[in-house]
Amino acid sequence: MKTSLEQISPVKKKLMVEVEAEEVGRKIEDAYRVLGKKAKIPGFRPGKVPRKILEKYFSDQVAEDVTRGLVNETLPKAVEEVQAYPLTIPMVENELLKAGQSFKYTAVMEVKPQFELKDYMGVEVEKEILSLADEDVNRQLEEIRKANGRLKPVEGERASKEGDCVIVDYEGFEGGKALEGIKAQNFMVTLGTGTIHPDFEKGLTGRRIGDSLEIAADFDAGHPNKNLAGKKVNFKVKVVDVKIMELPELNDELAKSLGADFPDLETLKSKIREGITQNEEKRIAKDLKRRLVEKIASGVDFELPESLVESELRYAVESVKQNLVRMGSTLEKAGLKEDKLREDLLAPARKRVKELLILGEVARQNELTITDDELNEGYSDMAKSIGQDPQTLRRFYEVRQLADSFRERLLEEKTLNYLVNGAKITPVPGERLRPREG
C-alpha cells in the first residue's frame, strides 16, 4: 500500500491511497471463491458454477464488495501512517476496480488545525471584586414576602388601582375576527408591574368587578407571539374580580413558616446572604475565565473546521428548542425561525469552537488529563447538585454514550483553572468591567 497526503487547507487534507495489483487480485479471487460455494444459478449445482458464469452474473457485485472491503481495511492504516486524524468520516472517491491493476482512491477529511500557541501563561486579566449590599438581601426578602402573600378582596366597591390584582376573562380580535390562541379565563394582571401591554394595563385601571370593556392595543412587529406581532388587536374584557395582595410581616414568624432551617429572621437573612455570596462567586469566576480565554484567543488566528462549527451550532439550536419546550413553548409559538436562529448563533458557535481548540492545545502542551479519581469526583459533584445517586448518574451517562463528553467538560474546566492559576489577576470594582462587556 502506498500513501500520500495533500493539504487542501489548514483544516482539510486529501489522502491518496494505492493498493497493489497483487493484493487486489487476491481479494477478487477470495470473493469469487466464497461466492462460488453459495451461488445458486439454474442448471448448475452449488459449488460447481464455472468462473465465467459467476463473472457474468456477479461481476458488478464482486467489484462493489471488494472495493468496500479494501477501503474499510486500508483507510484506518493509511490514516495512521500519514498521521492525519479525521474529525468526521472522510469523503471517499475511488477508481473502478479492475483485476490485474492497482486500486486507487482518495479520502478528503477535516482535521484539527495546527497553530502556535505561546505566552498564554501569566496573562494579565481583571477580576471583579465581590460586592454584596444589604439591598441585595432585602430584595430577596421582599420576593419571599410576595411568594407568601395572600390575595384578599378589596374593601368596599372601590375601583382598581396600581398594586391591585385584577382577574379578567378576555378574547382578542383583529378586524372583528377572533385571533387564534388569544383568549383566557380568570387571567390575573397585577397593575403597575409592566408585565403586559401598557394599553391593556391602563384599560384595567379604575375598573370594578363586573365591568365589561374593550381595549385596543398595537403590537410591534417583533412581538414574540406571532399571533399578536404587528397587529392592532381589540380585546373584549370582563372584570371577574379585583383583589389586593396582603404581604406577611417580615419577622421571625415568617422565617419559621419557611421550615426548620430558619428559626428566626436573622438566620434567614444569613442564609440568603450566604446563597447570594456563593452565586456571585460562581458568576465572577465564570466571568474571569471567559475574559481570560477571550484574551488568549485574540492573540492567535487559525481556520476552523466547519464540521466542528456545525456540530456546535446544532447543539446551540437544540438547546434553545429544549429550553422552550421546558417552558411549554416551541420555536413557532415564540415567533422564531430556525434559519434566523442559526444565523444569530453562528458567531457564538465559531467563538466557542475556537476557544475549545485553544483549551485543547493548552491541555496537550501541559499534559493535562482527567484521572479516574477526578472523574468520580465530577460525577459526585453533579449528582449532589441535582439530588441524584452518583452511580446511577454515571450509568445514565455511560448507557447513553455521554461519558466521553462529560470527561471532556471536566478537562475543559481543569484547563481553565490551570490558566487562572497562572494568570496575573488584578481585582477591580464591578462597575469598571460591566460597561466594557456591554
SS strand fraction: 15-25%
- Sheet with the most strands? 5 strands, antiparallel
Give the helix proportion (percent range): 40-55%
The CATH class of the domain at 2-110, by name, is: Alpha Beta
Q: What name goes with the CATH superfamily of the domain at 2-110?
A: Trigger factor ribosome-binding domain
CATH architecture of the domain at 2-110: 2-Layer Sandwich
Low-confidence stretches: none
The structure class reads alpha+beta
Query: What integer is the average pLDDT?
Result: 92
Say what the CATH topology of the domain at 2-110 is.
Answer: Alpha-Beta Plaits
Helix and strand string, N-terminal first? Answer: EEHHEEEHEEEHEEHHHHHHHEH
Q: Gap between N and C termini, in Å?
A: 58 Å
Question: What's the gist of this structure?
Answer:
The protein has 438 residues and is α+β, with helices and mostly antiparallel strands. The chain contains 12 helices and 11 strands. Strand 1 (2-9) and strand 2 form a beta hairpin.
Describe the structure.
- The chain is of the alpha+beta class.
- Among the domains are: about 1-110, 2-Layer Sandwich (Alpha-Beta Plaits); about 150-245, Roll (Chitinase A, domain 3), CATH 3.10.50.40.
- Helices cover about 50% and strands about 20% of the residues.
- It is built from twelve helices and eleven strands.
- The protein has helices at about 20-40, 50-80, 135-145, 200-205, 250-255, 265-295, 305-325, 340-365, 370-385, 390-400, 405-420, 430-435; strands at about 1-10, 10-20, 90-95, 105-110, 125-130, 150-155, 165-175, 175-190, 210-220, 230-245, 425-430.
- Strands 6, 7, 8, 9 and 10 form a five-stranded antiparallel sheet that branches. Strands 1-2-4-3 form a four-stranded antiparallel sheet.
- Helix 6 crosses helix 11 and helix 9 (about 370-385) crosses helix 10 (about 390-400).
- The longest helix has about 35 residues, at about 265-295.
- The chain is elongated, with a radius of gyration of 34 Å.
